[in-house]
Amino acid sequence: MREHSVSGSAGESSLIAPDSVLKLAPNITAAEALAVFQRKLPDAEAEVREVLHPFWWTALRARTRGVFTRSAKPGSAVSPGQRMNVLVNAYSGKGYIADFEPRGEGVAVADWVDAFESSDQGGRQPGVDQVRRTARSLVRTKVVKTVKLGMGISIDEAAAPSGVLKPNWIVTGANDKYSATILVDGLDSSHYIVRVEKLIQD
Amino acid sequence: MNLETWFLVIYFVAMAGIGVWTLKIGNKDSEGYLLGGRSLGPAVTALRLQSSSMSGYMFLGAGSLAYTKGYFSLWYAMGDIGGGVLNLSILGRRMRKLSQILGSLTSIEYLEHRYPSPWIRAIAAPVAVFCIFFYVMSQFIAGGRGLEMVTGIPYAWALLIAVGVIVFYTFLGGYLAVAYTDFVQAIIMLIGMVWILIGTLQAVGGWTAGNNAVGEINPNLLTMWGPEGIGSVQWGVIIGAVLVFSIGYMGWPHVNVSHMAMKRPSVARTASMYATGFNLLFIPAPYIVGIMALIILPNLDNPELAVFQVADTVLPNFAVGIVMAGIMAAIMSTADALLLQSGTIASQDLFQRFIKKDMSDSQSVWVSRFTVLILAIIGYIVAVNDPPAVAEVVIFSTTVLGAAFVPVYVAAAWWKKANVPGAISSMVLGTVSSVVWQLTGLVDATGVDPMGIGIVCSTLALILVSLATQKSHPVPAHVVAALKETDKIGAIPAHMLTGQNDALAAQVPKDA
């Protein structure tokens, strides 16, 4: 991990950046993002642009074992367990378990830092240790929900934290009544309304 | 203070405690306050559905019916037993899935999203609030009367205490509090009722001996045809009792909101198993106790008190306290669900929709809370000064609710051709026909239940008007797509969800 200096409203601060960064390919096209916008604002004219949001990505492997199962002897076959990919927001430190394996092209770390600086989000930036803790805690919670009482659980890191740039679409436009900006998730097309204004008063 | 009163005090404190506890764990936004964050599992869903639809009627009305009509009263029990399962099977999974796809928070909003027109809400919301207010007031009165019987304190104070506790936890915790208190109340109701049944059967020397003794009073009481025998049976009333009680629940907005709060659509299947188990254990009990009361208390002045008086005779003092808590549980679980629902409709369906559109989540929650408080105050004032007859108010309001809403809720989830004009005409005709049938005395003249007439009218209106207006008012494409998705079993694709994904708020760039 490297430290980068970042200037912001709170003055100069240091940013922990990953050693390698992957830019995820969007599952949702610009036309589909526009369709989401037009479903909210029928007959709207709008422009669409891609934005990237910085995430940390780590993978963990969870294994479970029954109460009466002996420990595996060295050299014997061990259950591979379940691999889980966790994405942690580089700003808020909130994480979620992804139902996909992150794939995309490798990009420069500077791109991740640029994406980080372009966001308006606040909050305490998570360090690598916190990313690991968040990921482990999420995976543990998910496994505990499904295993039987008394089962042993072991969670190991399958991939060290690295950087991921997640694609989203910003769609800005208006119809004859409203002007709005929405953020469309580049992976699953869910949306968040950033701004909406009424153009004609009743 | 007697032992029975102590049990009631403990019960009230426990219910209020649940209210405070859920205040801490939930309701940060509207979805939390109104739907418990769509987080309820099968047991809570089922028992909440059952306890909020049973009401004090099961302890007061059911016993009275059995005391006066014998096994004829089991027609009503049969309708009731099937009601919860029918509701969960017909509406449960589909309403849960469709409401999430359409982004609906309240059961009235759900109707407007399914039939996209402001008129739907403008008609449905006032009808629902009007009926629910009367129903909740009847529960207040029943609660006050129950507390007065147990503690001996004056009715006005008993009413104030009952209303106060109900409002306290509904006010603080929203749907989550109501859902969890209803769950606890369903268990208390069940324990109380089964306890009375066992005590009663022991007191009469077993079911066979009890039936023999009832047969000596009037052999017709042992048949399903009533005290006058098969010659005087009103078939319209029997059909009404079975059908209306079984399908009527599907038209109650405060009961249907349970479907929307389920954790997953598949919860409905497991919940219907719990509901069946609860119904089979709980519902026949007050009727059997009412029949056996003919032997234990042959000269009862007020048949409505049959179950309570039998409990007082056959059970030890401490058990009477628990049973009274059960009776209060039945009354209060209905009242709190109704109060919350009327608060919800007033804030989301009327205030936010027609008065202040840009209301924040926090403001919306507070409007709901104040509405609950105001309705409770008005309800208290009416109930304390000039209390109407409980049974009449309950029958009137449930009849109108069922007649107005059963076809539109069922068609919303099942029929892709049901459109706006069909839904509007169905609600209007269902309401008008059931009210007119009741107020003009046609019930006595024809022996036909007004809810049955109302449902027939509203169903025909929905089908005929929808089919006649398919070209002029087609069902919008996104609603048809949502209904097709609802046909399928499985997770909802993200692109179908109309509600926004708040998690994306943390990914908004600076220059957006």
User: Which H/E pattern describes the elements of chain B?
Assistant: HHHHHHHHHHHHHHHHHHHHH
| Inertia-based shape of chain B | globular
Shape of chain A: elongated
Low-confidence sequence ranges of chain B? 26-37
Gap between N and C termini of chain A: 55 Å
Structural class by helix and strand composition of chain A: alpha+beta
- Broad structural category of chain B: mainly alpha
Number of strands of chain A: 10
Rg of chain B from C-alpha positions?
23 Å
Q: What is the helix/strand order of chain A?
A: EEEHEEEEHHEEE
Average pLDDT confidence of chain A is: 79
| Average pLDDT figure of chain B | 80
Strand content of chain A: over 45%
Total number of helical segments of chain A?
A: 3
Please name the two chains that share the biggest interface, counting residues whose Cβ lies under 8 Å from a Cβ on the partner chain: A-B, 28 and 18 residues
- Oligomerization: heterodimer
Strand content of chain B: under 5%
Q: How would you characterize the largest beta sheet of chain B? A: none
Tell me the span between the first and last alpha carbons of chain B. 66 Å
Largest sheet composition of chain A: 8 strands, mixed
Helix content of chain A: 10-25%
How would you describe this structure to a colleague?
- The complex is a heterodimer of chains A (202) and B (512).
- With 202 residues, chain A is of the alpha+beta class.
- Chain A has one domain (2-9, 19-70, 79-198).
- In chain A, 19% of the residues lie in helices and 47% in strands.
- Chain A has three helices and ten strands.
- In chain A, a hairpin with a 3-residue loop joins strand 8 and strand 9 (178-185).
- The radius of gyration of chain A is 21 Å and the shape is elongated.
- The model of chain A is unreliable at 7-12 and 72-78 (pLDDT under 50).
- Chain B is built from 21 helices and no strands.
- The chains are: A alpha+beta (202), B mainly alpha (512).
- Chains A and B meet through helix 1, strand 8, strand 9 and strand 10 of A and loops of B.
